[in-house]
Amino acid sequence: MLAVCLALLSRAEDGSVPAPLPPGADVTPAGGEAVDSPAGSPEVVPAPPKPADPPAAPKPPPPVAVQPAEPPVQAPHGDDSGAGQAVESSAEVRLGDTLVFTIRASRGTATPALRARTAADVLHDALATARPEDVRVEHAGTVSIVYVGAAPVIQLTPEDARRSGDASLTVHADRVASAIKQALKAEQQRSVVASTIFNVSLAVLFAVLAVFLLRRAWQLGDRAEHWLEANPERVPSLRLRSVEVLNRGAVRGSLALAVAAGRWVVLVGLVYAWLIATFSLFEATRGLTEKLSGALLGPLAALASRVAASVPLIVVVSFAALTLALVLRAVRLFFAEVAHGTTTVGWLPKDLAAPTGVLAQLGLVVLALVLVAPVITGDPDGAFTRMGLVLLGSAGLASLPVVATGLVGVVTLFGRQLKVGDWIELGPRAGRVIGLGLLETTLRDLGGVELKVPHLLRLWHPTRVHGPTPRVSATLTVDRALATPALSARLERVLAGLGTSATVRLVEVQPGHVTLELTVSSATADAQAAMLWLALAELEAVKQEKQ
């Protein structure tokens, strides 16, 4: 080396610089000899320079582009498996947007990227059902396996621990397991929040849709009602060939009732559908969805199955109901013609035709339910039979006042408690008895008006019997200075000319006046007014005498 340096130095002093040689070229200049260098490459020891004839500088070779090779990073000392191999780049295991852990070493032929992708797939599959408590670590020899439930996430080796800077494989596995737990918990919380927000948005959307549909149904119902009110003549009657089953008014009333009921059905249906749809969105209310659906759909399904099994019977019952409706229609028309005088029958007066028709129709309905319904349905204890019995029971309960009135009338008539011609007071009513029946007493008051008082009224009010002559009473206010026993005697003498049993009774005494009650039994028309006029005339006479 020292010789080479001296040669280069001497050439520099002479002004001649050797041309660069390509790497590896073995050049032995003239007069020199090759010497092996310690590094193994030959060094050329030039001969001492000659002052004369300096060698001509050779032509430089064309430049060659050389890309520097990046030296490989050797595996750390002591690693038998990775000796002499380049270190692979690390790979991140992510769950959603959350970084769980980083893999820095290969295992066999599995690169860090492949191991990270496998672990991320397992975590993603387990996210929906796994809980943070399901993460565990199992050690098998020199390998630690991290599980989420029954699925292995990753197999960790001592090389993973060493490259991650952990003291041991156990510590590294526990740290990875803790990171997975935190990532699962965070991702599940984020998923719950996002799902809750989405479900609340859906519930609000369902509510808006339900309100829109309800408003639309209400508008359609209003339009239908307005149309029925504005166009009553356009509503057809329900006819069966030439027989009118329902007239226009009945059909229009039925349609109006159906529209009103349809509104509430739509309202209840929309509210029920919204509750079912909303409760099914949230875990806390999902149990209520099953209860609501079971409470309504269960009975409806059972009813539908029973209806499907009873279709033949429904057809027969419908035909029987139609026949009954036609018979009732014929009976109603017959009694209406008798009431109008178009048809005359000897056994039914015209004035009794209308109530007789109502009783006849009611009797036909009861007979059909009690007698005909068991024959049609084949069940003597069926619903129609029970309905007829219910109607009979209702009629019995409704007739209790009539039966009670008849019993009181029987006691009154056969007990001779009242007689025709007697003047009686029955509660607030008073008059002469002009007739006694089984259910009522007929009175004629002082104004000549007939009053029909049911016998049942005697159970609530006392009956005052005056006999053939009515007892008339009136009150008279007299000045305190004129009220004397002599005045009372004079008034009794005056009233005696009006009837019998005339009495004057002091009722009330005030500082300036007194009140007298005048009573007389008189059959004179408007006896009360006549009695008051006589009393006033007597008072005037007394005043003039005192003057």
Q: Termini separation (Å)?
A: 181 Å
What would you call the shape?
elongated
H-E order: HEEEEHEEEHHEEHHHHHHEEEEEEHEEH
Strand content: 15-25%
| Global mean pLDDT | 76
Strand order of the largest sheet: 13-12-11-10-14
Radius of gyration, rounded? 61 Å
Largest sheet: 5 strands, antiparallel
Low-confidence stretches: 1-6, 15-87
Tally of individual helices: 12
Coarse structural class:
alpha+beta
Oligomer: single chain
What would you say this structure looks like, in words?
The protein is α+β, with helices and mostly antiparallel strands. Helices cover 50% and strands 18% of the residues. The protein contains 12 helices and 17 strands. It has helices at residues 2-14, 112-126, 158-164, 169-230, 248-279, 286-309, 311-340, 353-377, 383-398, 400-414, 485-496, 527-546; strands at 33-36, 42-45, 91-95, 98-103, 135-140, 143-148, 151-156, 238-240, 243-246, 423-426, 429-436, 440-444, 450-454, 463-467, 471-479, 500-509, 513-521. A 5-stranded antiparallel sheet has the order 13-12-11-10-14. A 3-stranded antiparallel sheet has the order 5-6-7. Helix 3 packs across helix 4 (169-230), helix 4 (169-230) runs antiparallel to helix 5 (248-279) and helix 7 runs antiparallel to helix 8 (353-377). The longest helix has 62 residues, at 169-230. 12% of the residues are buried. Residues 1-6 and 15-87 have low confidence and may be disordered.
